[in-house]
Amino acid sequence: MVHVAPWLCCEILLQLVGSGVTAEPVSVRVERVESGLRPAIVLEGFAAERLRLADRMKFYKVPGVSVAVIDHGAIAWARGYGVREVGTEKPVTTNTLFQAASISKSVAAVVALRLVEQGSLGLDDDVNRTLRSWKLPDNELTADKKVSLRLLLSHHAGLTDYAGFRGAAPNQPLPTLREVLEAGEWTPAPIRVGFEPGSRFAYSGGGYCLVEQLLEDVSGKPFPMLADELVLKPLKMDSSSFDQDLSPELRLRAAVGHQLNGKQLPRNWNLYPATSAAGLWTTPSDLARFAIELQKVRKSPQQSILLPATMSEMFSIQGPEDDRDSKVIAIREGISEQPPPSWGLGVGLIGRPPTRFFHSGSNPGYQCEMQAYLSGGQGAVIMTNGDQGWRLARELLWAIAREYQWPEYAFRPEVKKVARLSQAELERFVGRYRISLSHPSEWTLSITRNGDRLSAQILGYAQKVNLYPKSGDACFTIEDAMTLRFVKDETGSFIEVISDLGWRAKRAIADNGDSNPASSHVRNH
Question: How do strand 41-43 and strand 474-476 relate by DSSP bridges?
Fold first, then answer.
């Protein structure tokens, strides 16, 4: 028998009490999270229903989910749920790889900032002075204000490529970064300056393509190799890779992407030429290690991957000191917390001054969320292989926040009052609307009525949610906290619908014959 000195027992007990550790098994906390999801909105007079994760996965047609929870500056637990591919029994585990989509940008930003610390780049220098393979075309907008690395990392560079990238099939040759930057074939528009650099926030995937070219020109190394050397290996993110040609071992662990209707993508997943913007393959546990490293500087700066001064820059609000940026970011990210969000270098920020950092990710077939606190060592990473996974991730984040008592986290459902409208007033909403997003794809939104109930559906998809009248010219949904505002013409007929989540639709064809209530929503992200 091993004897422990009484003074040592007291010291251990004090450490446990001081750190907030209790005797409660982790499995009990996990169970409360799994059974504690709630929708974003509840109707006045109704209690917020507790929902189970498995049921919400079915509702949103998301085959697989992987979660890592951060508490006291460490991974408290990680779990996988569901399957990697619909119709199979391949389970999602903590080692299953997902596409991180735009969360890739946060990792890429740290790669860039490490080169700044090494003296290879200047955060506020004109990037055209360092670029060799391709130069950003100058125009009258860049005569006085040049595009810098800081502006690119914070989406304030004035670029008008409208964020997205076209993916390639796994067997399709990828274009060079220069081809992406020049032609505009792989982006909604060529990478060009369309408004004064530094004047306002405009999310730009093309900006990170330009950052990637800059990093390769400076280092002389392909970005996946550079990221591996400067971030992934030092942080022991062993299940992470920016290389689009996955090794056979990693390929066997990869989750297949799935569409809004729950069917798998025709080619399983897309590949992305600008890997820094959307191409990271990883796990929630690896991204949790990344987030923990960013939190670490507050406790032990000498051990962090970035110096305290650099980390301070990363978590400082970038851009003009007004609310215009915050409104755009809040709409884009679907974040209703107050004060509204802002943007740093490679990460979104919540709080004034910032108390929490985040980034979401949205590739076809994959939806992900990362949120963590700057102090206190709390956070979570959620990755899914379904196009509606972002809704599920938000509900799961709320459950985690409640369980771990995240400070100043707006996880209480909003109580909404339903307006009482006549049958004629309800009928005015009915019709088909063509949704136009910030990329070439379009959908048809069909709004129908069945008695006193309104609903909507993206034609071709089976997802159904009800629409609730907010007023005579507005409706809302419960599942994703979306509000739809309807615009009238001179006759009083609705001719357009505008979503507060960033998309709008023009009325196309009247649709009065469908008696089945249905609804869906496409996230413009």
Answer: unpaired
pTM above 0.85, yes or no: no
Which CATH number applies to 98-403: 3.30.1330.60, 3.40.710.10, 3.10.180.10, 3.40.640.10?
Answer: 3.40.710.10
Least confident piece of the model among 374-378, 379-383, 519-523: 519-523
Q: Which CATH number fits domain 419-507: 2.40.128.50, 3.40.50.300, 3.60.20.30, 2.40.40.20?
A: 2.40.128.50
Nearest to 501 by CA among 310, 345, 303, 362: 362
Quickly tell me which residue has 């390769």 as its tokens.
216
Query: How big is the CA angle at 351 (ends 346 and 352), to the nearest 5 degrees?
Result: 105
- Distance between CA 254 and CA 90 in Å, rounded? 10
* 196 contacts 141 by C-beta, under 8 angstroms: yes
Q: What is the pLDDT of residues 77-89, one digit of tens each?
A: 999 999 999 999 9
Q: Note whether 468 and 475 are within 8 A (CB).
A: yes
8 Å CB contact between 107 and 344: no
**Total residue length of the chain:** 525
Q: What is the pLDDT of residue 163?
A: 66
Residues 6+ apart with CB under 8 A from 330: 336, 340, 341
Closest CA to 506 of 445, 434, 414: 434
pLDDT at 469: 96
